[in-house]
Amino acid sequence: MNASMETKATVTLPDDLLADILGRLPARSLAASQRVCKAWHELVENRRLLLRLRRLLPHSVRGLFINYQDYGNPHFFARPPLAVAADGARIKGKVDFIVREINGYSFSSWYEVADHCNGILLYRDTDQHVLYVLNPATRRRARLPPCSGEDWKRRAFLVFDPAVSPDYKVLLEPVDPREAACSRLMQWPPAAWKWHEFSSMTGRWKEKVFVLEGEAAGTVGELVLGLDSLRYSMVPRWRYAAYWKGELYVHCRGEFVARFSLLNDKYQVIKSPIDLTDCKNDVRSFLGRSKEGVYFAAIDDGQLQVWKLSESNNDDEMRWELKCHSNLKTHSWWLHERKYDAPWIMDIRYKEESLQQDVCWNSDDDDIIQVSDDEEESCYSYVRFLGFHPYKEVVFLCHEGTAVACHLNSSKVHYLGPIHLGGIYNRGDRESFVYTPCLDWRLRAYASASTCRF
Fold it and tell me: Which residues cross the membrane (predicted)?
C-alpha cells in the first residue's frame, strides 16, 4: 500500500479511535500530525489533544526583561528565588554569553530586547545592528544574517510556538511611512504590504507580501503624519505585538491593530477600542497576550481600561470586549515602596543565597496595596505598561519607577518593587517584556554554521 492509500485509509477511521491513536504519540509527533491533512488538524484542534503537549511546557511568569533609555543593556526584574538557566547560571538582562571579538579583544556591546515569544528572546545589537535569537533558560543562541542596510530602522517581531514546531520566524516591518516617499493621500496600510521574514528552517530572509482583507485603516496623512505624529515619541517605544493561535497581532501607528495570518499571507485591520480624538494628550495604549487571547489596554485621564479581542460567531467580525475599567491611584504605590521590602528585585541586586531554590511566582502571594476610597488621584502621565500576564488576567504597570501587578477582575494591586536604576540613569524604563521560560527548546541549526553557536 502506498503512502497516499495509507493516509486515506487512516483518515476514514472513526474519530474516537483516531483521536486515541494520535493521543498516544510523543508530543512533537502529535504536533507534526496536524500537517498531514485537514481532517487530522481539525481533530487534534477540536479534541484539544495538544493540551498534553502544552502541559509539558512551563506556564509561569519568571520575570520581566526591561530596556532603559539611558543604559546600554536591559535588566531582568524577578521575584526571588531567582530563575536560573539550565547550567545553573543566573538569568540577567545583560546576556554575557553573546560576545563580539574585534582585533583580538572580546567584549559585550550595547543590546536591547526587541521581542519575546514563548520563552525565547529577539535581541538586537544596537551598535552593529545585528539580531540574535536566544533562549535565556538554555543559553543557546543564533545570530541572524543581515536582511537589508536599514534593518535598525525597522520593527522586528518574533514568532515561536514550541507546541507546534521547534522552528521560529522573525518578521521585519517595512520602513516607517514617514521616512518613505509616501503620499499623504495613500491608503494605509497598503493593499499589498511588503515585509521580510526570516525562517530558522531555511536560515534565510525572504520578502513576504501580505494581502489586505477588508478595509484599510485610513490614509498616511491621517494615521502617520497627523493624529499620531507626536505621540509615544520617546517614552516608551510603544509598538507591541501578540502571537496567538498562529496569527501575529501588531499594534500599529495611528492606533489600529493588524492581524497577520502566516499561513495564507493575508492580513486584516482591526480598529482600536479607543479614539485618539476623544482622549487626553497623555493617553497610553498597549497590546499583548493574556489568559484568553489578545488584550488591549489604555490609560487616559487616570482611567485604566482593558479589552479582550473576541470574534463573533455570526459574522466573523472582531470585537473588543471590555474586561476592566478602574481608577488608578498611584500615590499608594509610592508609599508602599518606602514602607515595605520589595518582593521582586533587579538583577543588579542579586544575592547568591536567592539562587538556592526554584519556586514559580504566584501573584496572589505578593503584598496588596491598600487604597482608601477617599484618596486623591495622582499624576497619571507617567504610568507605563510593563506587560500582560499570559496565563492570568493581570496587567503589570509602573509609575515613577515602582512596579505593580493589577488584577483585572478585582482591581486589586500588588506591589512588586522598584525598577529604577538610580544614579545617572534617571530617565527610566523604555519598554519591557514578560518572560516565560521554555526549558526544552533547542535552536534549529540552519544553513550557515558561522551564524549559529551551540
Answer: none
The structural domains of the chain, with segments of one domain joined by +, span 3-54, 57-453
Cell representation of residue 313? 460567531
Quote the radius of gyration of the chain (alpha carbons, Å): 23
Give bridge partners of residue 106 from the DSSP assignment: 101
CA-CA distance, 191 to 188, in Å (whole number)?
8
Per-residue pLDDT tens over the stretch 325-344: 988 877 777 666 555 667 88
CB 110 within 8 A of CB 125: yes
How many C-beta neighbours within 10 Å does residue 417 have? 23
What per-residue confidence (pLDDT) applies to 26? 63
The band of 199, judged by pLDDT with boundaries at 50, 70 and 90, is: very high
For the CA atoms of 107, 109, 113, 119, the dihedral, rounded to the nearest 10 degrees, stands at -20
- Spatial distance between the Cα atoms of 431 and 124, rounded to a whole number of angstroms: 14
Say yes or no to pLDDT of 121 above 90: yes
Q: Is 425 within 8 Å of 443 (Cβ atoms)? A: no
Residue 197 contacts by C-beta under 8 Å, 6 or more apart in sequence?
169, 170, 171, 172, 205, 206, 207, 208
Size of the chain, expressed as the number of residues it contains: 454
Per-residue pLDDT reduced to its tens digit, 49-108 = 766 555 445 578 889 999 988 778 899 999 876 666 666 677 888 877 776 666 666 666
Give DSSP secondary structure letters for 304-319.
Answer: EEEEEEEE-TTT--EE
Ramachandran class of 401: left when φ > 0, alpha when ψ lies in -120 to 50, beta otherwise = left
pTM of this structure: 0.81
The cell for 393 is 488576567
Query: Which CATH entry fits the domain spanning 57-453: 1.10.3470, 1.20.1070, 3.30.310, 2.130.10?
Result: 2.130.10
